[in-house]
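May I ask you to review the protein record following this short note?
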Amino acid sequence: MVTGVPTTQFTANASAPGTAVGVSVSNFLFTPRDTAVQTGGTVTWTWNSGTTGHNVTYTGGPTPLPDSSHTQSGTTTFSTTFTTVGTYTYHCTIHPTQMSGSVTVVH
């Protein structure tokens, strides 16, 4: 037994992902790149890209994959409501090497 050593207590706090999550599409990036949402929740991508076109194209995840967006620019939006648990990957088909992300859906 060791005496005279102070004890330390740690507390961890966690919260569940939201049911409404926003992702910005600007500067050739999805921000945040990776996000999480609860089952039944919606992710909305908002374009802040001026005249540069981008899209959200699903590349992996539970099947069937959700519908992808059309190429858009300006200040438009695109939303997906997720009903199946899993991780969905996506990218912009115009800029696939620099614009990619994921959505993790949890209970």
Observations:
- The chain has a mean pLDDT of 92.
